[in-house]
Design brief:
Strand content: 15-25%
Distance between the termini: 39 Å
Radius of gyration: 25 Å
CATH superfamily of the largest domain: Glycoside hydrolase, family 3, N-terminal domain
Shape: globular
CATH topology of the largest domain: TIM Barrel
Structural class: alpha/beta
């Protein structure tokens, strides 16, 4: 196998090329929409591309489950394989577009994914883009995703980007002016952890700064974050890109500078190489005013071109140039999207109604997300050629078994009526009548990216994509209140990228935004073709009143590590159609072992989770912390011995000054299907195996 071109090798090539450019040409290359330099044979290039869960905003592509659902699989291998497919499709689309002379936005090779911010508060609309609330799960999933995107050939397949650096997770409405204040402990233990792993362990090529300030400094111009920590401490060698129009915020909203020239200078001198926005158009004026030097411009330009060299964009021997458009949107990629959707859905509640039995002859499918493509997609998505909505998936399966399907939208997603000329609740009567006739009613509820997402991308402008609370919109609550009493049996399916507080129904399925095959995956789970196996990558609280203020970035009282109340559904939790027992735990030389027995009558995937608690250290979180996981398929009646590597950081703690040190010698390790807490055990009827460790 040919070793990948190193950063230093690429930088040497970049220096030779950049040395031939004029100052004006170098400054122009620091825009996200870099113009061509025809005399040097350099084509135009647009740095802006998205790929959170498939090649986004660039036409037809495989749409995988949203990032939060990818995390719910607790499957590092699946994260890598998904990203590898995305990189193939990204290359295919780049080759096709550039071959036609199209070098527009969303058609390049530098992809601004993954988002490894911590989903610290379920009200944040963009939490769906992340891998949840746990730093370890985020880091492990993110590293696998980066490796899948970037590949292991002579050149990078795509360039990945860790975003948004750092301490960024809402509120969306004030992100352009907000100062996220985090203690040194929270900074190192929580907010920077995944970024450091992606830089050191996955060699992520790019880092994107956040809109907000962190402890007073705007992130896209932060000397502490970009120079002292990212480059000097972690040894990052790639390029830094600003979030879009974030540098403009320096003078317009943060008021740390007084002009575009000062803003451009602050960002450039502190290590932001590429400007997504227009502020670097003022670099030449900043130079004339003595705010930056030509060396500052040259350094950033060299870093940018080093990435282009590492991608093989300046070479004639890049094997990835042979990837054709025929390798996009393939049957094999669609099959992977289906498997991911199956693995990611989480069964939160089941009073015996699932899987559906042969006595079901009529199914009512009700709800605003039943036949919604938007409920499959989530934000930052591509366009699939083969969507299967929840209704379509259930109907296709039901037809094979001679089951009648009745459909009613029931209500608008969030408004009080479907038709503008009708009275309020104009679809309720239809839903009530269908539920009365059906053997089982499947409610398809939740949100979509038009009301949960990024500021400016949603119609929820008052909250800018964030949620006011953890409840369903009032229209949907009314639907459930009115129709549930009419049901013989009921299943509530939630499409959402975040935690919702819903307790009604005989069964409850968290489907996330499950991608193009969401309806088929749901049908497979409802009818028992497979056992559900997803696990929650974030805590489901009963009410937002259980949480600190949304703008408070201290970790105390947040996430499963620091929350000391009683959750509705805990982090790491998820039911199956069988029962697992965990026995004979062992720990030796960095690896834990446990015997997992499937005591039920159905083959199923078990997600074995390892949690650790330091027993003699006051500087660790109050609750045991995830330190390992492994997904394994166990047949009914079978026992398997599962080995889990335990993260080295599990035996450390972070002090108040941010230093990571050993957490003593006395630890307790828990191995099971979820957290070692009373709520998980009561809901799952499965107990963790427990092992005391003396180092």
């Amino acid at each position: 196998m040919t070793a990948m071109m190193t950063h230093q090798e690429a930088l040497e090539k970049a220096r030779a090329l950049v040395a031939q450019m004029t100052l004006e040409e170098k400054a122009g290359q620091l825009r996200y929409d870099a113009p061509a330099i025809e005399r040097l044979g350099i084509p135009a290039y647009n740095w802006w591309n998205e790929a959170l869960h498939g090649v986004a905003r660039a036409g037809t592509a495989t749409v995988f489950p949203q990032a939060i659902a990818l995390a719910a699989m607790f499957d590092e291998k699946a994260a890598f394989e998904t990203a590898d497919i995305i990189s193939t499709e990204g290359r295919a689309k780049y080759n096709a577009a550039s071959g036609e002379g199209d070098r527009d936005i969303y058609k390049g090779l530098t992809f601004w994914s993954p988002n490894v911010n911590i989903f610290r508060d379920p009200r944040w609309g963009r939490g769906q883009e992340t891998y949840g609330e746990d730093p370890y799960l985020t880091a492990r999933t993110g590293c696998a995703f980066v490796r899948g995107l970037q590949g292991d050939g002579k050149y990078m397949k795509l360039a990945a980007c860790a975003k948004h650096f750092a301490v960024h997770s809402g509120p969306e409405a004030v992100r352009h002016e907000f100062d996220a204040k985090a203690s040194e402990k929270d900074l190192r233990e929580t907010y920077l952890y995944a970024f450091e792993k992606l830089v050191k362990d996955a060699d992520v090529e790019s880092v994107m700064g956040a809109y907000n300030r962190t402890n007073g400094e705007p992130c896209c111009g932060s000397k502490r974050l970009l120079e002292e920590i990212l480059r000097d401490e972690w040894g990052f060698e790639g390029h830094v890109v600003s979030d879009c129009w974030a540098i403009r915020d320096f003078h317009e909203n943060h008021h740390v500078t007084s002009s575009p020239e000062e803003s451009a200078a602050l960002a450039l001198k502190n290590g932001c190489d590429i400007n997504c926005g227009c502020t670097y158009e003022y670099l030449l004026q900043a130079l004339r005013e003595g705010l930056v030097t030509e060396d500052d411009v040259t350094r950033a330009c060299e870093r940018a071109f080093a990435t282009r060299f590492r991608l093989g964009m300046m070479a004639d021997d890049c094997a990835y140039d042979a990837i054709s458009p025929l390798e996009n949107d393939t049957d094999a990629h669609a099959a992977k999207a289906l498997v991911n959707a199956q693995k990611s859905m989480v069964l939160l509640k089941n009073d015996g109604v699932l899987p559906l039995q042969d006595d079901v002859k009529t199914i009512a499918v009700i709800g605003p997300n039943a036949d919604s493509v938007l409920a499959l997609e989530g934000n930052y998505c591509g366009t699939s050629s083969r969507y299967v909505t929840f209704l379509a998936g259930i109907r296709a399966y039901a037809q094979k078994r001679g089951i009648r399907v009745l459909y009613s939208k029931g209500c608008h997603l969030y408004k009080d009526r479907e038709s503008g000329l009708a009275r309020a609740d104009d679809r309720l009567a239809e839903a009530e009548s269908y539920a009365s006739l059906a053997d089982v009613t499947v409610f398809c509820m939740g949100l979509d990216a038009t009301i949960e997402g990024e500021q400016g991308d949603t119609g929820n402008e008052f909250y800018s994509g964030d949620k006011r609370d953890l409840f369903l919109p009032e229209s949907q609550r009314k639907l459930l209140d009115r129709v549930l009493p009419r049901c013989k049996r009921s299943v509530v399916v939630l499409a959402a990228g975040s935690a919702l507080s819903v307790e009604g129904g005989d069964a409850l399925v968290q489907a996330w935004y499950p991608g193009q095959a969401g309806g088929e995956a749901l049908a497979d789970i409802l009818f028992g073709e497979i056992s559900p196996s997803g696990k929650l990558p974030l805590t489901f609280y009963r009410t937002a009143k259980d949480l600190p203020d949304f703008e408070d970035y201290a970790m105390k009282g947040r996430t499963y590590r620091y929350f000391e109340g009683k959750p509705l559904y805990p982090f790491g939790y998820g039911l199956t159609y069988t029962h697992f027992t965990f026995k004979e735990p062992e720990y030796r030389e960095g690896n834990a072992k446990v015997k997992v027995t499937n005591d039920g009558s159905m083959d199923a995937d078990a997600v074995v989770e390892a949690y650790i608690k330091a027993n003699a250290c006051a500087d660790v979180p109050p609750n045991p912390v995830l330190c390992g996981y492994e997904r394994v398929h166990v047949r009914a009646g079978e026992t398997k011995e599962v080995t889990l590597p335990i993260c080295e950081d599990a035996f450390t703690c972070v002090l108040s000054d941010g230093r990571r040190v050993p957490a003593g010698r006395d630890f307790t390790l828990f191995l099971g299907s979820g957290q070692p807490d009373a709520v998980t055990e009561a809901l799952s009827h499965e107990a963790c195996a427990k092992l005391d460790i003396q180092l």
